[in-house]
Structures are given as C-alpha cells and as structure tokens.
Amino acid sequence: MKNDFRLSRIFTVAAVLIAGLIGGCSTLPDEVTPLTYTGPKQNVILMIGDGMGFNHIKAAEAVYGELFLTTAKADAEGEVTTYSRTLLSPTDSAAAATALATGSKTKNGQVGQYKGKVFQSATELAVSLQMATGIIATEGVEGATPAGFSAHTSGRDNADEILADQLKSGINLFIGSNIKRYRPLKNEIEKSYFFADSLSSLDWSRDKIFASFEEIPLTNKGETKPTLAELCTAALDKLSENPNGFFLMIEESHIDKFSHNNDLFSAVEHVKAYDNAVRTVTEKAAEIGNTIVIVTADHETGGLQYNGETKEQLSDKMYTKTSHSSANVPFFIYGEVGTTIPAVIDNTQIGNLAKSILSASK
C-alpha cells in the first residue's frame, strides 16, 4: 500500500508539473528585448533555410568545400534560439515562421496568430507602407514558412484558408512550385493575380503575380523548372522598381524534407543550392543598394551530428532523429544595421528587427 501511495503521489506531482508547463505554454510572455534599428529606412530580404542547422553547413562544406555562408564577411552573425510556445517539444515551421515574420511567439501549428490574436507580419507592414513585397519558396507557397509571412490561420494544414488570405493580402509576388495544387485553382487565383506556370508565360510587367512551377530544382531544367537563384534575381529586378522600397522572403524548403528522411546527401545538395541563392541575393542587394539581407533558418531538423567527417565518411547515420531538434540555428546579416547584434538572439528578434528597418522614418 505504501508503494502504491508513493507511486500515486509521484504521478500526481508529475501531472501537476506537466499541467503547469502546458498551462505556461498558453501564457508564455515574449521575454526577449526587441532589436531596435535606428538607421535610415532600407529594403529587407529575409532568407530561410528550412531545417538548416550549423552541422548541415559543415557537412555541405565537406562535400563542396567552403561555402559563401562561411567565407563571406557578414556584418553580424551568430546563433538563433527557436523555441515556440509549445514548450514540451521543438518548434515546428509554422511557429518558427510566425516568430520570424511577426516578432511574436505562437504554438506549433498556428500561423501568424496565437489563440485568435492576429500578429502583423513584416510583409503586411511593408504593404501598408506601399512597399513592394514578395514570397518565394522552393515548395508551394501554402507551406508553413511562406504562410507565416502571408496568412493567419489556426492550423498550418488549412491550405484553402491560407490561399484565401494570400489572394487578398496585396503582396505583389508569390513564387513557388507544387503546380499540381494550383493549376486547378487558376480561375480563382486569376481574380486577383496574374497566373504563370512557366518562365515564358511569366509577365513581369504585372503588378500582382502568382507563379507556380513543376519544380524549383538544383539546376535549371527548363521552362517549368527554374532554380531558386534565377527566380530570386528576377524577383529582385521587379521589386526594386518600387520607389518606396521592398520586402522579400525567400525559403529553401527541401533541407528540412530530406533531413526528416535522414537523407544527408540530398539535404546537403539543397544547402548548396541555398548557399548559391544567398550569394546571388547578397550580390544583387549590393547592386541595388540600401538593402539588408538577413540569412537564417527556422529550426534544425534531424539532430544532425558532425565531427569533422570527410566527404567519404559522411553517412545518413549522422542523423540522430527524424524530427526537429531544439538546437540553435545560424544567422548572418549583410548590410549595416546600425546597432550591435548579440551573438545569440531569439527568432522573434529577427522579426522585430526586420519590421524596425522597414518602418524607419529617416
């Protein structure tokens, strides 16, 4: 009986602790201090490597040699914490994207809101300031990360709600893949946007463009399969025409997908593609001028371990899980932000920094 009583008390205490943690999830304050920008108003490009941790970059360098991400001189760089309001597990892409887009935390699965409270994203702020705006993802733009910058919904899988929000958002460019989803919706999309499914059909003179391709691959495979770097260049040519400036979010979506599958070589191929896009975008930003590029990830996927392995020694067994981890992810900032950026920041600080730059009055 004594043992039963002790076990009962242990289970009761554990239940109380878990309930407290779960309850805490619903009231968790945003405790980090916002990063405040005090310089002149600038364009902002925010690039996200979905699922990319520090060890993904190291493994890619074992295959390809030094990457732009580690050799280019960033104006600030360091680590990003990624926890969400779902404290009992690592963040998902929806909560992480919401933090990066809005500067506010939410629970896993929620997009651009928390318990019905809608958060303003950097994209929405830019639209309100009559700046040009764009969303690019290597998967469909209904994915959790692009949705975090363009929609508000209680569930990341609410694809129709996400699309409805996007079509009334005022965002100038939506570019992604997953044409099989969007082709049947062409008539609905064309009520608000010019629809394109190939490079030759893409009319860049249009104010509102919704472009969906078969694939956004590692190398160009034709009219319906352009690369991320190519699309970023064309989008920046378009957005930089706006005299009020622009905001652009770019996601490489597949590092995460292949890491969930513990497919290391495919994952690092997409790290390399992301690195190519980062190089292209930073060079284009320097050409445009008055533009800050923030490069980061939403979370780490796979608990990837790296201990100096050579290309020949790399193995899928270096992954320790098939889910997300709580590991910090990298950030790099190219451009003068006018303030000291700590070596370790929270993902909400990236969101509020982007908004602070866009809303600068100088």
Tell me about this structure.
By secondary structure, this protein is α/β, with parallel strands linked by helices. It is 37% helix and 17% strand. It is built from 13 helices and 14 strands. It has a 10-stranded mixed beta sheet, sandwiched between helices. Mean pLDDT is 92; it is low at 1-29.
Write a concise keyword list for the protein shown above.
two-stranded antiparallel sheet; 13 helices; ten-stranded mixed β-sheet; 362 residues; single chain
Instruction: Write down the overall geometry.
Output: globular
Helix content: 25-40%
Number of helices: 13
What are the segments in which pLDDT stays under 50 over at least 5 consecutive residues?
1-29
The end-to-end span amounts to 73 Å
The major sheet is characterized as:
10 strands, mixed
* Integer average pLDDT: 92
Share in β-strands: 15-25%
Order of adjacent strands in the largest pleated sheet: 7-8-6-5-9-1-10-13-2-14
Ordered list of secondary-structure elements with their pairings:
Blueprint: H1 2-25, E1 43-49, H2 54-64, H3 68-71, E2 76-81, H4 93-102, E3 113-114, E4 117-118, H5 122-128, E5 132-137, H6 144-148, H7 159-167, E6 173-176, H8 179-182, H9 186-189, E7 194-196, E8 209-212, H10 228-239, E9 246-252, H11 254-260, H12 264-288, E10 291-296, E11 300-301, E12 324-325, E13 329-334, E14 344-346, H13 347-358
Parallel strand pairs: 1-9, 1-10, 2-14, 5-6, 5-9, 6-8, 7-8
Antiparallel strand pairs: 2-13, 3-4, 10-13, 11-12
Helix pairs in contact: 2-12, 4-13, 10-12, 11-12
